[in-house]
Amino acid sequence: MSVYPDALATEVETDDGLRLSIRPIRPDDAALLVRFHERLSSQSIYRRYFSLHPVLSDDELRHLTEVDYVARFAFIVEYEGELIGVGRFDRIPGTSEAEVAFIVSDEYHHLGIGLMLLERLADVAWSLGITTFSAETQADNRSMMGVFRASGFVVNARMEDEIITARFSIEPTDASRASRARHRRGPHGVPVEGQAP
Questions:
Q1: Cα 189–195–197 angle (5° rounding)?
Q2: Could you give the 3-state DSSP secondary structure of residue 188?
Q3: Residues 6 and 25 sit within 8 Å (Cβ to Cβ)
Q4: Which residue ranges form the domains of the chain, and what is each CATH number?
Q5: Closest Cα partner for 176 from 111, 104, 118, 90?
Q6: Does the pTM of the predicted model rise above 0.90?
Q7: Which terminal residue of the chain has fewer beta carbons within 10 Å of its beta carbon, N or C?
């Protein structure tokens, strides 16, 4: 495992005034992740895992919290000491592509948290030589596809058997920079995250 990247921890504020902490995940976040998973709706769990998955096993918790910060990376979002969002990428071995996924507590949807996670994951991945993100989601998960499109990246998507496969370059573009500028305004040095689908 690589050294924990402390420098990537930050605080942000949503347009609704929520002060959130974002930082790379650590192995000792397992208990936070368990509580987070318990609060998710069955629909959110199904959209993330493609199955009803009410409990995370010990092996899954280790896999999700023990990352190397290079080929496997994850950010968590906390509000008042509770985990409310997780985003991660897993590099496809031998390629410059990574699978990306994120999930946000139901009560914190539509606050821009998914977009916030995607942008930060893209920044880290790009710095590590990853050039492309891919993801699979269910056809009715318009929120996730909305986040991808709001990022300013050019998303190629195809659907088969009610599953959408999305793939897009994460090279910074004028559109992706413009997207960030619209929802990051830094009064007093504190980034402010805006609304996103």
A1: 140
A2: helix
A3: no
A4: 9-185 (3.40.630.30)
A5: 118
A6: no
A7: N
| CA–CA separation, 139 and 47 (whole Å) | 10
Rounded Cα distance between 133 and 2, Å, is 22
For residue 182, CA distances in Å to 28, 56, 65, 123 come to: 35, 37, 32, 17
Residue owning tokens 């914190």: 108
Dihedral class, residue 17 (left if φ above 0, else alpha if ψ from -120 to 50, else beta): left
The answer to whether 2 and 10 are in contact (CB under 8 A) is: no
More confident residue, 140 or 185: 140
